[in-house]
Amino acid sequence: MRLTQGTFSFLPDLTDAQLTRQIDYCLDRGWALAIEYTDDPHPRNIYWEMYGPPMFDLRDAAGILRELNACRSTFPHHYIRLSAFDSTAGTESVVLSLIVNRPATEPGFRLVRHEESGRTVRYGIESYAVQAAPEGARY
Amino acid sequence: MDGTTAASVITDARTRYSAGVLKYAQMGYWDADYVPQATDVLALFRITPQDGVDPIEAAAAVAGESSTATWTVVWTDRLTACDMYRAKAYRVDPVPNNPGQFFCWVAYNLALFEEGSIANVTASIIGNVFSFKPLKAARLEDMQFPVAYIKTFPGPPTGIVVERERLDKFGRPLLGATTKPKLGLSSRNYGRVVYEGLKGGLDFMKDDENINSQPFMHWRDRFLFVMEAVQRASAATGEVKGHYLNVTAGTMEEMYRRATFARELGSVVIMIDLVVGWTAIQSMSHWCRQNDMVLHMHRAGHGTYTRQKNHGVSFRVIAKWLRMCGVDHLHAGTAVGKLEGDPMTVQGYYHVCRDTHTTADLQRGLFFDQDWGGLRKVMPVASGGIHAGQMHQLLDLFGDDVVLQFGGGTIGHPQGIQAGATANRVALEAMVLARNEGRDIAGEGPQILQDAARWCAPLRAALDTWGEIAFNYTPTDTSDFTPTPSVS
After folding, report:
1. Average pLDDT, stretch A7-29?
2. Is residue B408 predicted with pLDDT exceeding 90?
3. Alpha helices of B265-366 — where are they, by DSSP H?
4. Catalytic, out of B180, B182, B286, B311
């Protein structure tokens, strides 16, 4: 499967040149960029590990790309996402978030069904990779 | 309008309150010198007085009948601070290019309204003036609420920002589709359509407005099959997915029962129809706030009173009331699809849904500023006769904070529902990417889609099937202040 979280997951993976243009778009709007990584891509795993705090004061696309590539070489088989934060009143949240690195093979998720009375089913989702190995040894 | 033709107010109390019939202007419902206070509720009506009825007297009558007046003088007014309770019409202007129609501005003291009750607002403002004989027609065009009154409403239970945080979806419009055919599918077949659409790339699928609990598909069956489809699609893609389960029913008790079952099955969103009424909407909004649920509002029935310019209530007013009631999603028009909607007028509705502070903008039909007082933002929904070939127009008109709903444009895809969903998702992401790169999507949109279709066969097929489809009819509800051609 291909994990399709993130703003551009249905497009071919972006090149560094394309990424630079997206970073410029964010910087032009005053947004802060942040890099996060994980090997637990559950759709409700909100808190990926931060690769440093959001780069509020780094206002240069080349510099951000350098940070991103450093993260990629440290965690070559992890999911890595680049997110932009808008601190404007009324938003104060993530406004763009794209996956910029992913493992070569993505085993995906199992739907867990707990059957209850009547025909009611309680659902859960489990990552095959997370089930198979501890953190850091999954991909 | 200077008011020289209107009857002037009678200030001598003995004369004013002697039994009999006076003109509304004489009774004090017209005051050309009135300066609205920051705490007043303001309403702008478009009125068409009967032949021979003075427009200022007609405006005074609107103010009177929507506040304290009755047809004759009553001495019991004198037991009250009646000057305060009287609404005041304070301005009347001819509508440009519409002989016989007038805009009339009316101010209402805050004391006239119960806190946190749209039922009370509507009972006052549109309670009986619309049937008033001296008027041929009347339309409530816009309203302004003081921030003190806005703060008595909890507003959307989730709002755009928190919805995105819960769904983990940022930086692009959300995608949806209404399950079709809207009536007749068995629950099992219905769930199939839901699964295919979500797995193919949509964020949401949707019940239509008249899917409740009919003989072909009882509600519990629908909820069970649909949630199996939603959860399967979520596992297949690693994304949070949803289906607007329509809980509209005959009684509040039944709506709560259905909403509770939706929650038990893990749904992130429920849906109600506008026809359930203001109080039911506010009750369901409270329920959603208590149960971490996104509330989708389908504006079923609104066209009966919003579409014609001379009579009814503008949708921008309905949108304001619904933001106060507290809905998270609101169908607000597409401009380019099959349903009524002048592009700038529709953008006006989007401002009402999404602004933190709305600024008056006559070309978009917004007559008043509105401070939303921190009320959460409503996610507008564009639904009805739109397809992937219009993606550049939709993104250009509406930006990121909108749900684009392609029903037929997903399910009618020649290669199947999943392919239809994928075509829409690819078209959307390609267009957002191009916009962020600084390209002129309004101009280059068709080329951007063609380029993406070179590597995405489903998009290729969608463009080949619908690329030329447009619904170019003259809108009926347009601004009076500028010509606004339909988007083609």
Report:
1. 98
2. no
3. 278-290, 303-306, 315-325, 343-354
4. B180
Q: Quick count: other Cβ atoms within 10 Å of Cβ A94? A: 20
pLDDT digits 0-9 by tens, B137-183: 999 999 999 999 999 999 999 999 999 999 999 999 999 999 999 89
Two tokens, residue B316:
């921008």
- Per DSSP, the three-state class of B429 is helix
- State the pLDDT at residue B471: 66
Between B417-436 and B187-200, two packed helices, what is the crossing angle to 10 degrees?
Answer: 30
Indicate the residue of A7, A92, A111 with minimum beta-carbon distance to B172. A7
| pLDDT score, position B131 | 87
- Across B235-311, the runs of DSSP E, i.e. the strands, are 242-246, 269-273, 294-298
**For residue B384, is pLDDT > 90?**
no
Q: Pull the structure tokens for residue B119.
A: 């039922």
Per-position DSSP letters for A62-98, written without gaps between them: HHHHHHHHHHHHHSTTSEEEEEEEE-STTT-EEEEEE
Pick the catalytic residue from B298, B309, B320, B377.
Answer: B298
Q: Which amino acid is at B41?
A: V
Residue B1 pLDDT exceeds 80: no
Q: Copy the structure tokens of residue A60.
A: 């240069």
Give the span between the Cα atoms of B146 and B129, in whole angstroms.
23
SS3 label, residue B389: helix
Do residues B243 and B169 make contact, with C-beta atoms less than 8 angstroms apart? no
Amino acid letter, residue A10: F
Q: Which of A8, A44, A89 sits opposite B356 (nearest CB)?
A: A89
| Whole-angstrom distance, CA of residue B410 vs CA of residue B430 | 17
Tokens 């500028």, residue?
A: B482
Q: Which residues of B touch A21 (CB under 8 A)?
A: 436-438
- CA dihedral sign of residues A58, A60, A61, A67: negative
Q: What is the DSSP letter of B97?
A: T
Residue A38 banded pLDDT, cuts 50, 70, 90: very high
Backbone dihedral angles phi then psi of residue A71, each to the nearest 5 degrees? -65, -40
Note the pLDDT tens digit of each residue in B436-481.
Answer: 999 999 999 999 999 999 999 999 999 999 876 666 667 777 888 7
Note if B180 is an active site residue.
yes
ipTM of the complex: 0.97
What is the pTM assigned to this prediction?
0.95
d(CA B235, CA B230): 9
Q: How many CB atoms lie within 10 A of CB B373?
A: 17
Whole-angstrom distance, CA of residue B10 vs CA of residue B76: 17
Token digits of residue B453:
């279709």
Integer Cα distance of B209 and B207 in angstroms: 7
Name which of B163, B164, B231 to mutate to probe chain A: the one with the most chain A Cβ atoms within 10 A of its Cβ.
B231
Cα B163 from chain centre: 18
